Amino acid sequence: MPSSVSYSVNKPPAKRPFRLRFGIRLKLLALSLFLFAIPWLGYQYVWELESYLRIGQEQTMVGTARAVATALHERPSLFDTQSAYLTDVKPGTDLYAHKIHDPIRLDGNLDDWLDYQHLSIDYGQDHLLDFAAQYKPDSFHFRHMVGQFGAYLYAMFEVTDEAVLLRSKDSLRVDRNDYLQIAMTDPEGTFKRYVVAPQEAGWVNAYLLSAPLDSMRPVALETQIQGRWLNTDQGYNIELRFPLSMMHSKIAFAITDVDDPINRQMRYRIGTANPNKSDALGTVLVPSPEIEKIIKGLKYSNARVWVIDKHKRVLARSGSIHKSVGLSTTAYTASRKKTASWWQHMEQQWLLPIYYQILTKPPAEFIDDLQDAYALQGQDINEALSGTPASLWRLSPDNKAVILSAAHPIYIDDNVMGAVVVEQTTNGIRTLRNRALEKLFHVILAVMGLGTLALFLFASRMSFRIRKLRNQTEAAIDSHGKIVATIPNGNARDEIGDLATTFNIVLGKLGQYNAYLQNMSARLSHELRTPVAIVKSSLENLQLSTQNPEDAQYIARAQQGIKRLSTILNNMSEATRLEQAIQTDEREVFDLSALLEGYVAGYRMTYPSHKFTFNNLSDDTRLSGSGDLFGQMLDKIIANALEFSPAKTAIAVTFEQVGNQHLLCIDNDGPPLPQDMQGKLFDSMVSVRGEQASTQPHLGLGLYIAKIIAQFHGADIHIENRQAETGKHLGVRVTLKIISLINRV
Q: How far is the C-alpha of 116 from the C-alpha of 148, rounded, in Å?
């Protein structure tokens, strides 16, 4: 190592007194926490407010249910005709007359029942009353329901029957065919039976049967029971209507199937109950008009009120939860209409539509699974029927609305006879919550705007300081890579101030190291060439003296080593000289196409062992740079291709224009490059040659020099393997991409 180079030992820095540092990260963290704390606290407050409002709504609903139940306490007459005293209710036997919104057209088509078909009951093997053969479910069954409109009870039967057999026109018997039997008790408690057995499809009436329970003899035509019989592809339909005044509360329907037209014997009988036994009749529950008048008189329009018996069957219903908003919005809407300021306009047209991309408005419509219910279920109802008032929160089936129900028992003679259920949605509370969140969002918007402005100013200040440091760093290094200045020390006690100080230290150390590297090549040449010359002359003198064969062999080997060492020294200094030449070389404009064509022609004459081709696919171009250096780069690339490609193979040079860039491609048939070396071959001191591949020393500087010259001309150079579509190796390609410095003539 030259004696002029010296190093100093760095002393450890003296301890600095502790000072609190408020760095950039702490500043940004503090601002961010401040901005996020405000909306979080506001949301928590609104959530607590909504919780308290829901508690208040729940208490109000329980109080409303208690008030309605109080109006029904100790009034047994309201429940006498509603079968509330039954100890048990049998589904399918004890019927419920659903309230029908419009009168039924008695045409047998069942179109008017479509809205209520989910309420109908299927009757089959479980409701088989009598049979003369093994029951086949597909041969005979029916779907049935009853409904109430005004003073009439409606009934429908959709019968599936594989063989419909009507009464013969000349027959007086009504039991030798398919028929419908009706049994009921009249308001006086008399047990009566009726039969519908038409001779043909169409309008039908019922016949009153004689008193003996085993008799099927008609005694009179009952015109109050009216209906229509319609034959279908599956069997037949029956629609009936009769006044509610004909019955008390007991009723049964049964359909008898007769399929054999010869013996005309009963095959199956299916029904709601046995029509020939008065004690076997089921009940029919009709919504109580008296109870409906009472709950409608309360005029509680913001909720839906149910009255159920102890069997959970609905006795009366009033109101709708689709209209129950929970609070009045008239005043709020009116207050908004009074003001028409620019702020109100911006709020309505811009802010609120954005807010409600996040918020959810109370739904105007939602699925109500209890809208047509004839029986209610729920934990609150169970507790109310056990004597304890209760409430329950539930979601609508489509998860759009939250429904609150409160139940309170109805007492008669200290016994729970039923319950009052009051339902209401939380739409009102949700509306109030949305209004509170609207105001909160206004505040958040203002705070976030001011915070964003503060962060913008802070970031702008930081950006200005960083750009200033960048400019100072760029100015400290000239175009030749020399350190020409230092970065002024600032008084800032944050990360940017530390970065400026560190840059100063790094620049100082880089300046020392660059100076050492710049002088290393000259020092090596000066220090090593003289010893090499001495050794070389001594070997030449020894070679002239008398030698034995063994000494001559050793001298020859030493001369070969000295030759290789001289070559290595020349190669090491070539890149340095080239970099210095590039820094001082003046640019000139030269014709790149002509240069390439001339060099390729020279390669053909110089290297006849290979076939050189040149394909010019570009217009005449001019490049700003050095033609000699560009030619030197070509020599390095061609020399590399000649060394690795077999003799008699082609070396193709192609120059073409692709878009706004020009590509210079040099292809040879050399062996494939290692995949991990393709991106490293243009680095200094990198080579893929084996030790035995060449007798000449190689330091991997050829392609490195080519890279330096390419960068001088504003080009990008890389090397890659060429492969066919089948994956077969075709050779190696060196590609030079030239963009900005090429101009068309």
A: 12
